[in-house]
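Bumping with the actual sequence this time:
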Amino acid sequence: MIWNQSHLLHALREYESFYNEHRPHRALEQAAPCRPLPPPITQQAQLAHLAVRRRDRLGGTLHEYQHAA
């Protein structure tokens, strides 16, 4: 629910950032448009130690995932 114009603008900025900087795009092989492609995982041992971090945005409406170091 949007409460006022300020809240609407905040929600739109958050979604714009998510869409352009975090959301994976199929045409870009699951990369975000404003980021370079991540290096491929080429060794099976890397898969055993793969950790993923989740970040919620807009109160949990949007989710972004990234490799945890």
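The tokens above came from a reply further down the thread. Helices lie at 5-22, 44-48.
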